[in-house]
Each structure stands twice: as structure tokens, then as C-alpha cells.
Amino acid sequence: MDEHLRESISHAHELATGAGIKVAVIDTGVAPHPRLPPLIPGGDLIGAHQQPRLPGEFVDCDGHGTIVAGIIATRPNTGSGWPFDGSADELIGIAPAAEIIAIKQTSAYVRTTEDSLVGTVSTLADSIHRAIDAGAHVINISVVSCLPGASSDPAQFQPLNSALDRAETSGVIVVAAAGNLSPTCAAGSTVYPAHSDTVLAVSAREQPHVIAAYSIPSSQRILSAPSLVGVGLSPRNDGFANAMLIQSGSSPFEGTSFAAPVVSATAALLRQRFPQATPQEIRDRIIYSSDPARGAIDPYAALSFVPPDSAETTPPEITLSFPSAPDTSTQKRGLNILALLGICIVLGVLLKGLSRLKN
């Protein structure tokens, strides 16, 4: 996390912490952790990882969903004892008082074929409905469906579009990853659900002013957040993790998947501070207050932003200007005016003189 964002979050917490706001994490599940709030079960659409007395959505074999939830709602640890006993750390969620609804929709350990019924557009639509039914105020979707070009069969996405429409009319803000470039998700692909106008699509930012090369360009206005998580909550125990174990070794927590929850958490702060705001108004606050060049999200700026008077006002755009030859037309006009004034004064003096001669 860059220093500017860290400072912005610190100031944002003076205005809101996400208290009373429920954020649904549609992902690989969310494992209970002492630094997370008590999790709310939202459903397990996988059904492959069961443990005694533990809902399937609380079993996160991939670790992905737990890291995402931690970005949103990690509780702070300020240490104990006096003087400080050295147990404190700086790890804190962007909306540390928010609640988390865990919904397990996909898993790399189960989905092994393209025709698998795990992690489909249909189960994603089902997950959105479950999140709404569970009382979510914000839905974070860090899983994506990627199709080359535009879909040739729009009907297959009707259930997803219907679910997104229901979220909008229910006052729920939906945030989704813009997607990462890969052999199965090339540039120019359509990424679902980031395709929707009612979804805040989030690109990855590697540095404060640089969009990650692997981040798929969104068809919407650019919105971005830091994409590399140095340390996250472990899905295996009460500690922390800095990488995911995969077949080829380990993989850092990096990608648009981890940029999206930064925006979801910011939406949670806004929902607490402006409980009557519509999803569109929340989106506008986030978009208008972000950096117009790279869409860098700024939680404090979003919370303190004063909306424009006109709803028709478009987000600010940067206009580049280049040096050009000095414009002397104004000077010339000024000199001409002075010359005319001089002539008028001279004529006035002459006329006055003539008038005296006549007298």
C-alpha cells in the first residue's frame, strides 16, 4: 500500500469505519480469523470442502477470499500492556468495523475443466442474489468471467444482468475486478461483471501513477487501486501470509482481485457516512474524487467530496496544453484603443480651442 493511500485511510477513519455495513465477499470462501469480524454465512455453491461444525463458505482452501476480506475489514491491533509490549502492527482494513458475508462461488481446487459447473456465470448470479438476501450493502466480486470480444449469445448472461439490476434497485453497490491479462483473457475481452454500467470496475495499479501492464483496460472510466498485498490474513491459522501456494510454487497476492476490495471498502465507508445515498451517488463520489488521470482511489477524498450542483456534470478530464507562440493580439488591440483615445483627446482639445476663438 502506497504512503498516500495509507494516510488517506487514516484520515478517512475519522469520518467512518464501516460500522453497521455488510460487505459480501463472493470468492473462494472466507476463513474465520481473530482479526476479522464474526463472519456471516452467505452460502457455499461448491460443496466440496466440508469440515465439522463449519459452513463450507468458511473453508477457504485457495486463500484468495480470506485475503480479499482482510483488505476490507481487518481489525486493528494496537498492542496491549503499558508501556507498549511490541505486539502492535500497522495492518488494518480500509473499513475495519464492517461486517463480512462469506459466499463461496469458486475454487481452483475444484474447477478443473472448462465445462465444470463450478464458478460459472450462473453461480455468480446466484451468489449476488444470496448476498442481497443476506442484507449486503456492498458486494465485492474479485472473480471474473472473461470472453473474447462481445458475447455471441447475450441470453446466457441474462441471469447475471438480472441479478445486477436487482442489486441496483435494492440499493446495493457492486464492485468487481477489471480482470488480468492471461492466455484465456486477452486484451479486448469482455469481462463479466465488470462490463456493467452499474458495477465499479477496478484496474490494478503497480505504483501511485502507473496502471499495471497486466490489468485489462476497462470500457468504463478508469478506476484503480494498489494491487500488491505484502501481508494478508492467513486462511490456515491465526497468523499472516505473504503468498499463495500453487502447483508451480508460490504466487504473491497481486492482481485486480486485490485492487477491487480497496474500492469495496471505500464504498462501505461511504454507505455508513451517507446511508440514504443511492448506488449511483456512491459511484459518483468515488469516481469524481479519484485521480482523473489514473483513477487512483482516495477514501478520504471520497468521504469529504462535495458533489457538483448539476447531476449532468461529467467527471473531470485532464486537458494537456503545449507551448505556442505568444499571442500579441491583445496588446495590439490595447495599443489601438490607446491610439484612438489619444486622437479623441487631441480632437477634443482642438475643438475646445476653436470654440474659444469663435467666442
TrEMBL record:
GO cellular component, one term: plasma membrane
Membrane topology: Single-pass membrane protein
SUPFAM superfamilies linked: Subtilisin-like
Membrane-traversing stretches: 334-354
Keywords: Cell membrane, Hydrolase, Membrane, Protease, Serine protease, Transmembrane, Transmembrane helix
Location of the active site: 27, 64, 257
Subcellular location: Cell membrane
Signal peptide positions (record): none
Protein origin, superkingdom: Bacteria
Gene Ontology molecular function terms on file: serine-type endopeptidase activity
GO BP terms: proteolysis
PANTHER family found in the cross-reference section: CEREVISIN-RELATED, PEPTIDASE S8
Stated family: Belongs to the peptidase S8 family.
Stated name of the protein: Serine protease
